[in-house]
């Protein structure tokens, strides 16, 4: 007998007796969010500022003019190095690659120098908290297959901190899910319902799950803005690993209300809660060197700043009116949806006349970082694709010049790796040419003396010292500022431990650099060859990666280091010494990657007082509270439960789940969805819920969770089939 879904009745009568669930989302108040054009823009579309703001032209002149002078000097010195005799094509190519790479670090140096001066003069007194707030703010956290124990602990800790300011009534909280894992989806719903019940009727906590995660995070935010954004003047965007104190959030809202021209205000998130060796290196570097770099950026950016996609406040109507992202023509990886959406959203809002800037000295903004080198490279692959897509945005009509600089900086941050790789290859080729190819001592034109192909070693050594000095200067600036800060110096373990920690960070950064160079170069080549990265959820815990996976990922890096080292030593000892930092890093790629994810190594350094940050010595109250809540949430084991089984055994959860589902779109006759057909067939064939749980694949489970009729079929299955009685032995 064939059973039609139309004949399947609703769940058991006891569900009908349950109380009507409270809505998971507030009433919609829509905003138009038109897709913006990159090819068409008229100056008349730019709004005029309410207050006049002078761009920091003198600081920009110093940063970029100084970088240009440094680059010109470096290029001249390199030309003198390679042009002792007649300059070959390879030498010209080496000069060009060196100039590109040198200009990149020169801008970083001059910008950091400005940041160093700014921080020397800064006032440490934060602005007082406002007595009241005029507008309403939505705190939104997009999630994608995350651990609910962590994300809901963060939301709860943030909410508690905001409530302590006395201004909590001005804020609502939204968890916006794009999860494609059925167990993660149901775990989010259970965590939401549990937290909302504990908070009571004034929870102001909402949850929404999208059936299709169109355009990923940017589409997730855009969907919320278009449907509910009209209820709020501002939205504070978080990442799944973000933490922000109530004081920081309230001051951000106050800054937005005090500045009618502000479209986006970005904070500087500090890295906290990291324990693996690699993550603690990043955490230390971000804490000690990060403020110097960020302060320099703030100084020359002015109100032509950038947006990093999280830990920032946005004016909702400005975002809706001007930040609707277009899809790029063509297929991924360089076409389609823009992965690194935040830079482009800031560019479009700034084009429309709204200000975008950073409050780098505003305390209380935090995030986490990838726990290992492999995790970082996975995230970098997606960022690389998104930043290379910006090559097609760079020439968009109407963009401000500093905005184009931000986009170019993002592009160059990944192109720098293949440029460095090419520079090394050309350098090796030049040494080969000098060593093994017979030089042409007498050119065809008449000369009295022969032409000797050689380099100027003294100039080369001086230029190398200059390059390393410029490269390391931002780290030295940050170290000096921390040494001058009495409280900060003590929080980092004292002057001696602080200096030793900096040396450790610099040493291992140098060892990791050639590995990252090859990884990023490979990513660039793959993208240019048309390979799309997709969108994978990030691993945020401190668990180590299996050693066999590390070997498989880095075996070619090690082999390349072995081949390059052997060849360099056979060609010339000087070449081997010149390449030794790169060779050593590649040869040690496997043990370095293994070490990067080791929790024990990071904690051992912590016990020795090394790589300490002030936030480790005196953890922020919100971080301590979030960790406590995470431990409590973990004990609920929501993330470990089978989502479909939980719905089967909990009628109240099932009722709430169905209430949160969006209306089902009518299906056209003859339009058969494969996953749905398979799910229906398996449910019809199943005798018990255990059969269904064993047979349904993740995509089919998602279909069942989205479809009330299919879910009703699953609920009506037997709990378990009794075993057949054993026959007595005759």
SSE inventory with pairings:
Layout: H1 13-16, H2 57-82, H3 89-121, E1 137-143, H4 148-164, E2 171-177, H5 182-199, E3 205-209, H6 216-228, E4 234-237, E5 243-244, H7 246-258, E6 262-267, E7 270-271, H8 277-288, H9 290-301, E8 312-315, H10 316-322, H11 341-351, E9 355-359, E10 365-367, H12 373-389, H13 401-436, H14 457-484, H15 486-491, H16 495-528, H17 547-571, H18 573-587, H19 589-596, H20 599-607, H21 614-617, H22 621-636, H23 643-649, H24 651-660, H25 674-685, H26 689-695, H27 698-706, H28 708-715
Parallel strand pairs: 1-2, 1-4, 2-3, 6-9, 7-10
Antiparallel strand pairs: 4-8, 5-10, 6-8
Helix pairs in contact: 2-3, 2-14, 3-9, 3-13, 3-14, 4-5, 4-7, 4-22, 5-23, 8-16, 8-20, 11-13, 12-13, 12-16, 13-16, 14-16, 16-18, 17-18, 17-19, 23-24, 25-27, 27-28
Characterization of the model:
- This protein has 730 residues and is an alpha/beta fold.
- The protein is built from 28 helices and ten strands.
- The strands form two sheets. A seven-stranded mixed sheet has the order 3-2-1-4-8-6-9, with helices on both faces. A three-stranded mixed sheet has the order 5-10-7.
- Strand 2, helix 5 (182-199) and strand 3 form a beta-alpha-beta unit.
- Helix 3 runs parallel beside helix 14 (457-484) and helix 5 (182-199) packs across helix 23.
- The longest helix has 36 residues, at 401-436.
- The chain starts with 12 loop residues before the first helix and ends in a 15-residue tail after the last helix.
- Mean pLDDT is 91; it is low at 1-16.
């Amino acid at each position: 007998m064939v059973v039609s879904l139309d004949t399947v009745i609703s769940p058991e009568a006891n569900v009908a007796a349950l109380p009507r669930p409270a809505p998971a989302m507030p009433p919609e108040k829509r905003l138009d969010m038109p897709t913006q054009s990159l090819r068409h823009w008229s100056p008349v579309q730019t709004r005029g500022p309410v207050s006049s703001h002078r761009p920091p032209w003198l600081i920009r002149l110093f940063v970029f003019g100084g970088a240009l002078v440094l680059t010109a000097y470096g290029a001249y010195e390199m030309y003198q190095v390679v042009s002792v005799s007649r300059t070959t094509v390879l030498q010209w190519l080496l000069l060009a690659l060196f100039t590109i790479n040198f200009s990149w670090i020169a801008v970083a140096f001059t910008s950091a120098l400005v940041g160093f001066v700014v921080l020397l003069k800064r006032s440490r007194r934060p602005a007082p908290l406002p007595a009241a707030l005029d507008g309403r703010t939505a705190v939104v956290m997009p999630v994608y297959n995350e651990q609910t124990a962590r994300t809901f602990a963060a939301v709860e800790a943030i909410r508690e901190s905001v409530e302590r300011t006395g201004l909590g009534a001005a804020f609502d909280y939204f968890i916006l899910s794009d999860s494609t894992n059925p167990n993660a989806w149901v775990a989010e719903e259970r965590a939401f319902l549990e937290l909302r019940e504990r908070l009571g009727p004034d929870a102001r906590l909402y949850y929404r799950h999208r059936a299709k995660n169109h355009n990923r995070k940017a589409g997730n935010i855009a969907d919320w803005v278009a449907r509910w954004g009209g209820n709020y003047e501002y939205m504070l965007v978080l990442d799944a690993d973000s933490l922000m104190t109530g004081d920081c959030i309230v001051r951000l809202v106050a800054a937005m209300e005090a500045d009618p021209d502000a479209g986006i205000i970005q904070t500087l998130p500090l890295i906290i809660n990291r324990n693996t060796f690699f993550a603690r290196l990043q955490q230390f570097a971000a804490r000690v060197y990060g403020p110097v770099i960020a302060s320099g950026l703030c100084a020359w950016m002015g109100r032509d700043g950038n947006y990093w996609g999280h830990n920032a406040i946005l004016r909702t109507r400005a975002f809706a009116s001007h930040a609707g992202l277009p899809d790029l023509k063509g297929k991924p990886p360089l076409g389609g949806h823009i992965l690194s959406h935040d830079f482009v959203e800031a560019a479009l809002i700034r084009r429309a006349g709204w200000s975008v800037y950073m409050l780098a000295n505003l305390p209380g903004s935090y995030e986490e970082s990838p726990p290992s080198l492999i995790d970082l490279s996975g995230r970098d692959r997606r960022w690389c694709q998104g930043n290379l897509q910006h090559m097609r945005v760079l020439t968009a009509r109407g963009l401000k010049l500093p905005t184009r600089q931000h986009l170019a900086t993002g592009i160059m941050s990944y192109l720098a790796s293949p440029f460095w790789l090419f520079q090394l290859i050309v350098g090796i080729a030049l040494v080969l040419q000098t060593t093994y190819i017979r030089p042409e001592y007498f050119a065809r034109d008449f000369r009295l003396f022969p032409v000797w192909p050689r380099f100027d070693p003294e100039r080369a050594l001086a230029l190398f010292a200059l390059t390393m000095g410029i490269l390391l200067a931002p780290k030295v600036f940050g170290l000096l500022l921390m040494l001058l800060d009495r409280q900060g110096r003590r929080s980092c373990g004292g002057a001696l431990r602080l200096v030793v920690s900096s040396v450790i960070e610099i040493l291992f950064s140098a060892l990791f650099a050639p590995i990252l160079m090859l990884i990023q170069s490979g990513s660039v080549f793959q993208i240019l060859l048309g390979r799309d990265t997709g969108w994978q959820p990030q691993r945020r815990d401190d668990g180590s990666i299996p050693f066999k996976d590390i070997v498989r990922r880095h075996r070619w890096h090690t082999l390349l280091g072995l081949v390059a080292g052997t060849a360099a030593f056979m060609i010339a000892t000087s070449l081997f010494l010149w390449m030794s930092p790169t060779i050593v890093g590649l040869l040690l790629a496997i043990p370095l990657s293994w070490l990067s994810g080791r929790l024990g190594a990071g904690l051992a350094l912590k016990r020795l007082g090394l790589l300490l940050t002030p936030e480790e010595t005196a953890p922020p109250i919100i971080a301590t509270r979030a960790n406590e809540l995470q431990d409590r949430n973990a004990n609920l084991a929501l993330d470990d439960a089978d989502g479909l089984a939980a719905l089967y055994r909990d009628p109240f959860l099932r009722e709430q789940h169905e209430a949160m589902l969006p209306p089902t779109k009518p299906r056209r006759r003859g339009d058969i969805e494969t996953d749905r057909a398979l799910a229906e067939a398996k449910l019809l064939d199943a005798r018990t819920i255990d059969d269904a749980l064993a047979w349904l694949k993740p995509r089919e489970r998602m279909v069942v969770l989205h479809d009330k009729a299919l879910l009703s079929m699953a609920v009506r299955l037997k709990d378990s089939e009794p075993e057949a009685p054993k026959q007595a032995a005759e």
